[in-house]
Amino acid sequence: MDPPAAKRSRGCPAGPEERDAGAGAVRCRGRPEALLDLSAKRVAESWAFEQVEERFSRVPEPVQKRIVFWSFPRSEREICMYSSLGYQPPEGEHDARVPFTRGLHLLQSGAVDRVLQVGFHLSGNVREPGGPGEPERLYHVSISFDRCKITSVSCGCDNRDLFYCAHVVALSLHRIRHARQVELRLPISETLSQMNRDQLQKFVQYLISAHHTEVLPTAQRLADEILLLGSEINLVHGAPDPTAGAGIEDANCWHLDEEQIQEQVKQLLSNGGYYGASQQLRSMFCKVREMLRMRDSNGARMLILMTEQFLQDPRLALWRQQGAGMTDKCRQLWDELGALWVCVILSPHCKPEERTSWLQLLSKWDKLDVCPLEEGNYSFDGPSLQPTAALIPGPEEEEEVMTMAAGSRHTVFSRALQAGSLHWSDDHLQRILASDSYSPNLTGNGGSDKPSFDPQGRPLWLGEPFPTTCARVDTLRAHGYPRQALRLASAIVNTLRLQQRHQLQIYKQQKKELLQKGSTCITNMEGWVGHPLDPIGCLCRALLEACRLEEETLAIYPDSGPEKRKVAYQHVPVPGSPGESYLAMALEVALLGLGQQRALPDGLYAQDKVVRNEEQLLALLEEVELDERLVQVLRKQAGQLLEGGPFSGFGEVLFRESVPMHTCARYLFTALLPHDPDLAYRLALRAMRLPVLETAFPAGEPPSNPLDSIMSNRFPRWFILGHLETRQCELASAMLTAAKGDPKWLHTVLGSIQQNIHSPALLFKLAQDACKTATPASAPPDTTLLGIALELGLQVMRMTLNTMTWRRREMVRWLVSCATEIGPQALMNIMQNWYSLFTPVEAATIVAVTGTTHATLLRLQLDAARREELWACARTLALQCAMKDPQNCALPALTLCEKNQAAFEAAYQIVLDAAAGGLGHAHLFTMARYMEHRGLPLRAYKLATLALAQLSIAFNQDSHPAVNDVLWACSLSHSLGRHELSAIVPLIIRSIHCAPMLSDILRRWTLSAPGLGPLGARRAAKPLGADRAPLCQLLDAAVSAYITTSHSRLTHISPRHYSDFIEFLGKARETFLLAPDGHLQFAQFLENLKQTYKGKKKLMLLVRERFG
Fold first, then answer.
1. 221 and 323: one domain?
2. What tens digit of pLDDT does each residue of 964-982 get?
3. Whether the Cβ atoms of residue 260 and residue 161 lie closer than 8 Å to each other
4. Rounded to an integer, what distance in angstroms lies between the CA atom of residue 871 and that of residue 65?
5. For residues 922 and 78, what is the distance between their CA atoms, to the nearest angstrom?
């Protein structure tokens, strides 16, 4: 960092002044503070030293020294604030590398020495131990200060972080903790004024000698200017003194390195895709809030610097050109930026000129093309808080709201700009903020057109939109007015309660009409949960903050440690409201916001924000330990939510596109269950609704893509529909688990699930969870809950019967295991009713097989009769499947019926009938091989002949997939005997036209004699001849096939295939020679080729060379 600049010029006094050696004496402990110190403290805080000198012609040296002494910051809190943000400490090093902590360790280890305060300048050395094998390092630190603020710092470590380094911290803390030990001198100009000419010359020469390499050129330049009578330096009275403090016109603020802030924000934005970058930017926003809370002007200054860098992010222009939305992390950061600007503009103590300059900046930024727009179509002039509210807005009013929401361009800065028109000068508002005991007795309502107090005499705050009033609360908290924030929050809660009572009265008057109508217009076009200003969160945090038990600490990163401390709350009474507590108010407000019936906003990010905001509020509530008082609040609010009609998301009638209440209901259900189970179930069951799907799939109509959540293209505005359905499923699961052992509630919950959940995937998950809950490892199963799990599984099977996916197999297996847990009757029931649940393949290959495995039978522990009954049911199922889908189910049916002769015969007959009906040769060959494996060669032969009858292999299909099956069938017939061989030859000749394949079969059959005949007697002692029946027919067919194939190949043959054709002719000659006159036939065949294809001279030359 650069060394501190000179603060101001000081005149040179005419002569030395008297010194009082006792001015800095230490005050004895227990004695009242001296009037001089009390006065000096006040002057040091608020007056620039130049102002003191101008106000008084002569200031005694003791007074100067006390003012200088008290001008250094006295609190470590500001030092901590300005040295606590540079990077997030790594996990496991909580606070270890934070500059404030390091500086504190340096101070405690005695690393600070040679500390000297000259006027408003503090300097000293800080020794820092080196690493292993490294020498100790010495840093020279200098600090300038004014009016209890550090105005500039310089350190030899060349720190490149946002705020103060550890060495500046160590020196500052030394000055605060050991102030009386620090050597104190008046500003250097005071010391110089006491020297005569010789002393001054000696002083200058010694100074130049000590630092001649650095200051000699400067000293010579200054000397030349002073000796020049008309120079500018001689026209100015006095000379600069860097130790004399600030001037009257100088800004009084803490040192902030603007360049480093801009550089770090720019770097973090360039790494925006990383989690750590977003966290550090959020930490910087928290630092802005901390500064605002300390009423430090650098808060707004730092926010301006950050905003400028955000707007220079090159991704903004890229996203705009591509028409793509920014990332969620980036959008969240922009939201926080916009909310912070609302707090800054609404500041209750800023000067009008400051607010004007901020608004000018915001207006300029707002007009930039790259400035992000606010998402969610929230209005900017929404309905104000009123003691009464219309049940249903008229069509003109609703249209006007929607037009205002969609008509103009609203950026993330628009709400801050709108806040510029708000003020704090309202008399009623000022009285609310000023006193806890403000009541109608202290003021008259006069001719006001709106009430200022509720019937109980508690103050109300009406006339502003709810988010705006909550922004006021957040602003008061942000700027360090916690008591005033609580008072305004209490008035807002009083107003909400009054409005809620009037809403219930209006609904009761129109309840009958609305229930007959069955649906209603939305009463809140924009919700409070997910709103850009987060009104419910602001209100809850303000109220909860007053109830925290632990003391506020100087923790730098409270959430980054390995374990987060649990927050504890206590009831804090509300002044002027007997029996009220801020903790109960916070719970009530949160439930009012979460239970509000509201329309889902437009846009993916806005909808994600609704979900995220809801989860944040519930996380706050879950930190609160419920006692009897809070349970009463829960009961009361739950009852009002159920009776709230169109104002409540739990009301009897719902707007089609209102936000579902599943997440809120799950919290309420869990919290109320130990205290009021009936209310808990009624509330949760009411919340199970998902109106947008109820209107899409009435009366149990299945969705078009049943295994997944409802596709977003069916509901293009509902980007988070899948998430909402998952939350609905979690609520149902919580109710099923809680209702275990209570058949009444279990069946009620089942009915609600079947009516409201439309996603088979989620229904299947519910069924699995219920089955797991019903069958604990160390306790007997809950048969009712098991039955419900099975019923849900059966519903999933029916819904997904016509949709084949990989998950179906998993579902079917699970259903069989669930039925097994219940008992054999349940298993037999799903087998008997398989038509409506499974495909034939699933029933035959999974249900019947899994239901009769050894493990299943052991689990069921059946006697012989019941076991046979189960087997009979499975066989019947397999036969029915084989009849319905023989191609895929015949083989499983045969396998399952092996042990029962009658069933096996029936299955075999089904196969034969299917063969006549067109069952493919591949399946017939597979079953034929199965029959051979089972020791039934004749049945295998029968099926093989049926397969051959359907087969056709052309002359050029040497690699046909059925080649191996044909060779196996030929081998089987050969092994059975001559009769079977003779019967299959015509089939072979008719089905196979491939010459190499025919010759291969012929050669195999001539190698050995046929095997056993049907009666088991050997019918041939020697191999069959190829020239005698039945093989002579096959030989003729093979020869004819070779001749035909040769002509076919020669028609379009190319020179590169000549060698292949010669090899083919060689194989043909081997087959020709199996006949008695084969050599003559082959010679004639060659001669015919030579005559016919004599134009192919090269080929014929090769034929002559090979065969003559």
1. no
2. 999 999 999 999 988 999 9
3. yes
4. 106
5. 86
971 Cβ partners below 8 Å, 6+ apart?
1004
Instruction: State both tokens at 482.
Output: 């916690």
HEC string for 945-997: HHHHHCCCECCCCCCCCCHHHHHHHHHHHHHHCHHHHHHHHHHHHHHECCHHH
Looking at the structure, tell me whether residues 107 and 250 fall in a common domain.
Answer: yes
Q: Phi then psi for 388, rounded to 5 degrees?
A: -130, 160
What is the count of structural domains for the chain?
A: 5
Are 498 and 626 contained in the same domain?
yes
Q: Whose structure tokens read 């390499």?
A: 213
Is residue 866's pLDDT more than 60?
Answer: yes
- How far is the C-alpha of 888 from the C-alpha of 892, rounded, in Å? 8
Q: What is the pLDDT of residues 144-179, one digit of tens each?
A: 888 888 888 888 887 777 778 888 899 889 988 988
Whole-number Cα distances in Å, 530 to 406, 597, 611, 613, 619: 18, 13, 7, 5, 15
Return d(Cα 1084, Cα 1091) in angstroms, integer: 11
The CA-based angle 827-830-833, given to 5 degrees, is 150
What is the number of alpha carbons within 13 Å of residue 684 lying toward its C-beta?
Answer: 32
Mean pLDDT of 342-365: 93
CB 561 within 8 A of CB 496: no
| Beta-carbon count within 10 A of 647 CB | 25
Which of 854, 852, 841, 844 is CA-nearest to residue 819? 852
461, burial (CB in 10 Å: exposed 0-12, middle 13-18, buried 19+): buried
Q: Looking at residue 555, what is its pLDDT?
A: 43
Q: Are residues 177 and 295 in the same domain?
A: no
| CA atoms of 170 and 355, how far apart (whole Å) | 36
Is residue 867, in this structure, part of any structural domain at all? no
CB 285, CB 336: distance < 8 Å: yes
What's phi and psi for 137, nearest 5 deg? -110, 140
My answer on whether 210 and 271 are in the same domain is no
Determine, yes or no, domain membership for 873.
no
- Average confidence score pLDDT of the chain: 83
Give the ranges where 623-659 is alpha helix by DSSP (H). 628-642
Q: State yes or no: pLDDT of 520 exceeds 80.
A: no
Q: How far apart are CA 801 and CA 767, in angstroms?
A: 17
**What pLDDT score does 4 carry?**
39
Q: How far apart are CA 76 and CA 113, in angstroms?
A: 19
- Residue 544 belongs to domain spanning: 428-436+450-552+566-654
Which residues, including other chains, have CB under 8 Å from residue 924's CB and lie 6 or more apart? 911, 915, 943, 944, 946, 947, 950
CA-based nearest residue to 471, from 450, 489, 453, 497: 489
Give the C-alpha separation, 574 to 493, whole Å: 12
Q: What is the 3-state secondary structure (H, E, C) of 840-879?
A: HHHHHHHHHHHCCCHHHHHHHCCCHHHHHHHHHHHHHHHH
The tens digit of pLDDT for each residue in 1080-1106 reads 988 898 888 888 888 888 888 888 888
Residues 6+ apart with CB under 8 A from 850: 813, 816, 817, 856
Q: CA 462, 464, 470: angle at the middle one, nearest 5?
A: 95
**Do 44 and 147 meet the contact criterion of CB atoms below 8 Å apart?**
yes
Q: Which residue has the tokens 């801050």?
A: 416
Residue by residue, DSSP assigns 374-398 as: PPS---SS-PBP-SS--SS--HHHH
Name the nearest CA neighbour of 424 among 380, 467, 473, 384: 473
Pick from 1009, 1026, 1022: nearest CA to 1078: 1026
Cis ω for the linkage preceding 1030 (within 30 of 0): yes
Is residue 1091 included in any domain, yes or no? yes
Which residues are CB-neighbours of 521 under 8 A, at least 6 positions away? 392, 393, 398, 646, 655
Q: What is the pTM of this model?
A: 0.80
Same domain, 580 and 626: yes
